[in-house]
Amino acid sequence: MPWSQKTLTLPPSSRGSYLITDMITSSLPELANYRVGLLTLFIQHTSCALSLNENWDSDVRADM
Q1: Who's near 21: CB < 8 A, 6+ residues apart?
Q2: Res 1 pLDDT > 80
């Protein structure tokens, strides 16, 4: 079973909620080779939080 590991650095941003899906997928073009997989994100910054949410409705980010 093949696997891949990469380290990514995202640009700094001020407080708020940000969609990072496009940044992740553009940095990992090899994702197109996988039909099923698991992505693990490790955040080293102490004041950063990661929230996984459905992005179907734009009200989701407003509610958060």
Answers
A1: 55
A2: no
Percentages helix, strand, coil for the chain, rounded to the nearest 5? 25, 0, 75
**Contact (CB, 8 A) for 50 and 3:** no
Cα–Cα dist 45/50, whole Å: 11
pTM over 0.70: no
Query: Which amino acid type is present at position 14?
Result: S
Over residues 7-21, the mean pLDDT reads 87
The H or E element that residue 62 is part of is: helix 59-63
Among residues 19, 28, 23, the alpha carbon closest in space to that of 10 is found at: 23
